[in-house]
Each structure stands twice: as structure tokens, then as C-alpha cells.
Amino acid sequence: MDAKCTPVIIIRFLGTTPDSSSIYPLIKSISHQISHIYEKPIESIPIELSNLTNYFKKLLECATSEKPLFIFLDSLDSLSAMNSAHSLSWMPVNLPKNVKIVVSTLSGYYGITQTLHNMIEIPENFAKVNLFAREKKCFKKN
């Protein structure tokens, strides 16, 4: 990375609050944060979901090589099915040059993994993380 590069990192742990469990408040929240960071007017954020989705995708173009944008969305499976959130129609398929989106989901839930594979045809963009075995640790007292 260039010494003048200041990455923007947005992280959401989905399903931990009502606003992180539904697609509309999630996209609105991320759009607010992107608007603030890249100095775009917040008043122009649309109210209707399909317009908000398009606005969110357009906002991603604000990222630059000096200020790239990284979005991490943990646990897509924790999103409410309301507004067809699991269809991932709100998720951009083609990202601007200076944007990366990393998502996680449990496989087999709501068809999300298959939908992601249908949207993103490059197998190298996927990494399966196996469940960790829980080990019991015993500590001796001295």
C-alpha cells in the first residue's frame, strides 16, 4: 500500500441488533457512514429500498486509491428474510476498482452460499472456514 493510502474499513456484525438484522437499516447505516467519510450529502440518501440499494452501489464509486473502501459483513445468514435480503439483490456484483467486500455466512442457510456462487463465478474468491473443534483445556494449579 502507498504511504499516502488511508483505507476506510466498515464492519458490521449482522444479527446483533435490530438495525443489523434487517437489510434496509443495514444498507442505510453503511450508506450514512460512506457518505460521511467521503463527504457526500447525507440528505440525499433515498428512503425507498430499491432506490437505497442503487444509491449504495453508486456510493461505492467514491472510493479512491488514496482512500480505498473495505466492507466486512459477518454472518449474512443472520439477516432477516424480510425484503428478500437473502436473495442478495442489494449486493453489488461488480465492484469499483478501490472497493472490496468480504462476507461470511453459514453454508446451507437460505441458499446464500449458492447465491454467492451464482453471483461471483471466480472460485478463488471463496474460502471455506471449517468449524473449530472445542478443546477442553486443563490448567494445573501450582
Layout of SSEs?
Layout: E1 8-13, H1 23-37, H2 49-59, E2 69-74, E3 99-103, H3 112-119
Walkthrough of the structure:
By secondary structure, the chain is of the alpha/beta class. It has a single domain (8-125), classed as P-loop containing nucleotide triphosphate hydrolases (Rossmann fold). It contains three helices and three strands. The chain has a three-stranded parallel beta sheet, covered by helices on one side. It is globular, with a radius of gyration of 18 Å. The N and C termini lie far apart (48 Å). The model has no long low-confidence stretch (mean pLDDT 90).
**Main pleated sheet:** 3 strands, parallel
Helicity range of the residues?
A: 10-25%
Shape: globular
How many individual domains?
1
Question: How far from one another are the termini?
Answer: 48 Å
How many separate helices? 3
CATH architecture verdict: 3-Layer(aba) Sandwich
Kindly state the number of beta strands: 3
Give the strand order of the largest sheet, numbering strands 1, 2, ... along the chain.
1-2-3
What is the SS-derived class?
alpha/beta
Strand content: 5-15%
- Radius of gyration (CA) equals 18 Å
Low-confidence stretches: none
The name of the CATH superfamily reads P-loop containing nucleotide triphosphate hydrolases
Question: In CATH, what is the class?
Answer: Alpha Beta
* CATH fold type: Rossmann fold
